[in-house]
Amino acid sequence: MAFASERFRFWTVVALMLAGAVGIGYRLVAVHLRLADVSVHDPRYWFTREIPGLRGGIYSESAGRQPFACSVPVWEYHVDPKSVNLKMHSRESVVQTVAGALHLPTNKVRDIFWRVDSRYVYLDTSYDDAAHRIMADPKRVSGVVTDDRQVRRYPQGRMLAHVLGFVSKDPDNPAGAGGIEMRYERFLKGKAGRVKGMRDARGHEIRERRMVDVDPTPGSDVYLTIDHYVQECVEAALNEGFVNCRAKAGWAIVLDARKGSVLAMATCPTFSPAEYNKAGELVKKNRCISENLEPGSVMKTITACAVLNEHMVSPDTMISTARNDPDYYRLPGDGSHKWEPFMSVRDGLVHSSNIVYGKLGYRLGPKRLWSYFKAFGFGKKTGIDLPGEETGILPNWSKWDKASWSRAPIGQYVAVTPIQMAVAYGAVANGGRLMKPYIVDRVVSPDGEVIFRNEPEVVGQPISPETARRVREMMLGVAMKGGTARRAAVKGYSVAGKTGTAQMKEGRGYSSVNYNASFIGIVPASDPAFVVLVTYQQPDHCSSYKYHEATGLPLYNHQGGVCAAPVFSRITAAVARYLGVEPDKPEELVEQ
What we know:
Strand content: 15-25%
Largest sheet: 7 strands, mixed
CATH topology of the largest domain: Beta-lactamase
Number of domains: 2
Shape: elongated
Low-confidence stretches: none
Structural class: alpha+beta
Distance between the termini: 132 Å
Mean pLDDT: 87
Radius of gyration: 35 Å
Number of strands: 22
Helix content: 25-40%
Number of helices: 19
């Protein structure tokens, strides 16, 4: 009996050992074949991963869908040296495979893979599909963690940088941080997909155990009213003038006179949207919409609109040029200009007489003049679809003193933005109709549906069509011989334009050396198609006069008619030809 009992105990132990061995063996085989649920209750084996939706592109329709901005899917690779599977391959073989696939220096890759005390060391970012297939093959590579990313690219380089804006470099939540990228973020941003599933002990996903698999949705594409060729012409001309007159800054706008759509908008100096973090805040500022400045004499056109619309004068009404007139208070001077005792309202605009237009402002009175400024859109945002727009500065008429009555009509005491001034001249071009400016034509979803579209919108009628026509006729002389900007003339086309040479504020007064030099014009004057504004801030002046070889007189390169007008002419000639605008002075082309 004792012997039988010992045999029973022996075989019982053997049976238990065999059962344990079989269980362990089955378990190992099951894990290897991914048949066992080794991690149903272990959260370490579950994972959830978001796959970002590709950000929408920004396009110019005129460029044949050539993108101004687009996103490219990429893979970001990190190395976890501790998770290299040394049973399948040597560490050195993984190093050689990874270096070859990603075209990286072998020594750099080897250094990362041998940092055995480190975890998740950044290796590289790549958009190479062939390389990704190699990196994802567990038989050839281990110890590499892959993250889905996307990179924002700007194929046109610095072109249109201030309008496009930029995208933050946060890899987990890239978002528009300026310009169109910011304003249309809700359309451009894609919807992330999501994967939830299980992975084995080596970190590889068990594909058949994927529980959630939602594909990402790309963002919508934004199509601009910006014309690629027009923008290219504007930037080339603006930058050349910027260098020639050695200005602190410069900007230009081309506006469709009938629609209010922006065909070009440029600011210099500029920056690369792809490297926005290397640019200073002032460089990234879109001065076309966010620069508050006293406009100077370009405001005289608006004053002319007001007095003609009120039927107070006609273009040929004669105004005394006497500054010391007892009927007026502290009239602004006209510098070295010598005029006849009387000057017509028309000639006052052509020769930019401060005295004439100061007196006209007095006749209007502050309340009426302020009302016209408001009606033309000054003192409030235009509503253009870009972030960062300023309102300008237009104090209520009740706060104007007697000196302001004669300063506001010549563009002092009030401040405007360049886009406000371009829109106001657009009303003079468009029969008195004030248009809301816009820079995005439409937004198109990934499946081709137009989900948003801007349409031309009339937001006011500050003057009558007849007043607009008469003022344009008055402006014709500015770009002709004897006017303040003969350099703004364009062969074959009539130009209704105006110069501005505005002294910049300095303390409680005005600088004697720093100016905003502008020219703004409507082309053609007889049947307006577009408006062009060009301004240079602080062009070199006084201490660096150049002298005319023949006359020995200084070239006043701080004036709008000298530094801004030629750039206006160059832009206008190119844009008119490109848009197929019919010349209204064809005899000039024949003569040429």
